[in-house]
Write a structure and sequence with these properties.
The protein is an alpha+beta fold and 137 residues long. The protein has a single domain, classed as Alpha-Beta Plaits (2-Layer Sandwich). The chain contains 5 helices and 4 strands. Strands 2-3-1-4 form a 4-stranded antiparallel beta sheet. It is elongated, with a radius of gyration of 22 Å. It starts with 10 loop residues before the first strand and ends with a helix.
């Protein structure tokens, strides 16, 4: 059997809030479009509403990790932001880009659980028996 790796790049999900998403969505798309144009990159950027609560509109942005890496090459100021990961640095840089055009969005990374495993794990239920545990006491 041949295994094919996924053709899609990993996606970074950013959650945000604003007061009127219907008006703000076009501004967000314009800013990301300008970044794509400047980096000569065509990404599969998505921006969708998550709903309205207590006067706030919540939305999600889905950005390809390869696009963020390309932007980091074009804009070295991204890597100068605080943060341990490139995604965190990009988020802080993106907030500053929005503030330059007088848009104050509250953005945060959506934590996607991931685990790096080197090797295999042994399930203790398969190699411990009551008799062996009794012998160890």
């Amino acid at each position: 059997m041949h295994k094919n790796s996924s053709a899609k790049s990993p996606i970074v999900q950013i959650s945000g809030s604003c007061l009127d998403f219907e008006k703000e969505r076009n501004i967000i798309l314009d800013v990301i479009g300008e970044l794509e144009w400047g980096a000569h990159y065509e990404s599969n950027f998505e921006c969708s509403s998550e709903g309205k609560t207590m006067g706030w509109d919540f939305f999600n942005m889905y950005i390809e990790l390869d696009f963020i890496k390309t932007l980091a090459e074009v804009h070295p100021s991204i890597s100068k932001e605080e943060g341990n990961m490139l995604e965190q640095q990009f988020l802080l840089w993106l907030e500053k880009q929005f503030k330059k055009i007088k848009k104050d969005y509250h953005l945060r990374l959506v934590e996607t659980p991931y685990e790096i495993s080197k090797g295999f794990r042994i399930d203790p239920e398969f190699y411990r028996t009551e008799e062996r545990l009794w012998d160890l006491r």
